[in-house]
Amino acid sequence: MRLWTLAIALLLVASPLAAQPMAFAVNSDAAENPDRLLRVDLGNGQTSVIANFATPLSGNAATLGDIEGLAFDGSGTLYAIDDDTKTLLTINPTTGSGQIIANGNLRIGNTRLPAAPQDPGITFTCDGEMLLVTGVGRSLFRVNPANAQTDLIGTAGSLGVEITDLAASIQGIFGLGVEGLY
């Protein structure tokens, strides 16, 4: 339930790819049928399954087992991060097919985040900058979406609270955490 709230809270805006109001969510923490990408019709609340991420992505041998954050960039590209492998990828919101972002020869683990579970969330600022937050690590990173390179902002753990997802607006950056909105 927590993940539904996080994903829907960040993607409540109408998708640039469709006329009807919709959102996208991923149920990575669900006990039944985990790691499915869902389309949510905001008019009636109905969901439809677009993809199951528990199967390998086309062109990649990896199975991504814990898709967490979702965020659209300004051009309508949908990004996600897999917490099991610490891998940034793009997702086609119509078909659900994903493409891992290449980082030289390194593909799986392209963000170089710590191996332990991080509960990451991502967003794009109004200026197009990609940010990533780690709930467990309580840290904020700047991300280059072209190669998944992460750069720590401040010091590790400097957020001081467990923020598991982000949203950006003209008023600033907002974090959604276990204990509330920041």
Describe it:
There is one protein chain. With 182 residues, this protein is mainly beta. Helices cover 5% and strands 40% of the residues. The chain is built from one helix and 14 strands. It has one helix at residues 2-10, and strands at 22-26, 36-41, 47-52, 67-72, 78-82, 87-91, 98-100, 120-124, 130-134, 139-144, 149-153, 163-169, 172-177, 180-181. The protein has a four-stranded antiparallel beta sheet with strand order 4-5-6-7. It has a four-stranded antiparallel beta sheet with strand order 8-9-10-11, with no helix packed on it. It is globular, with a radius of gyration of 15 Å. It starts with a helix and ends with a strand. Residues 1-15 have low confidence and may be disordered.
| Rg, Cα atoms, Å | 15 Å
Helical fraction equals under 10%
Overall spatial form: globular
Order of helices and strands: HEEEEEEEEEEEEEE
N-C termini distance: 20 Å
What integer is the average pLDDT? 79
